[in-house]
Amino acid sequence: MGTDDSDGTDMISPLKQILAMESIPEYHRQIFIISSGQVENSDEIIDLIKWNAHQSRVFAVGIGTAVSHNLVEGIARAGRGTSAFVRDSESIERKILEQLKNSFQPALESICSFDYFNLK
Predict the structure, then answer these.
(1) Confidence check: pLDDT of 5 > 80
(2) Strand partners, 2
(3) Three-state secondary structure readout of the chain
(4) CA-CA to 14 of 20 to 30 Å: which in 35, 72, 86, 119?
(5) What is the pLDDT of residue 89?
(6) Domains in the chain and their CATH numbers?
(7) What is the pLDDT, as a whole number, of residue 4?
(8) pLDDT classification of 108: cutoffs 50, 70, 90
(9) Smallest Cα–Cα separation from 45: which of 31, 26, 63?
(10) Is the pLDDT of residue 7 over 60?
(11) What is the Cα–Cα distance from 86 to 93, expressed in whole angstroms?
């Protein structure tokens, strides 16, 4: 990730570049985002990921106490991935390995509900 002119984290530009790259047909691109702070355009980032969820899965790891939980969880939810948080005393390696393992699990494409016991 880069920084913009206001010294904040610029997530949107690298994400747009990654999402514009050609992907392998019939395979979802797996994207991993690691964040340790706040961004001002959380909704724009989450919307971009949501609009590209048909071709990509996004996993997010938040580090430290200053990280935006809404951003990290929103990224994962919009990208059909999972989120994790690393606290001060926790191992980042373990959290990253968990996310990598999660990326090998199939993504739910659609969920439908039904009344199995016909309870109304």
Answers:
(1) no
(2) 10
(3) CEECCCCCEECHHHHHHHHHCCCCCCCCEEEEEEECCCCCCHHHHHHHHHHCCCCEEEEEEEECCCCCHHHHHHHHHHCCCCEEEECCCCCHHHHHHHHHHHHCCCCCCCCCCCCCCCCC
(4) 86
(5) 86
(6) 2-103 (3.40.50.410)
(7) 41
(8) low
(9) 31
(10) no
(11) 10
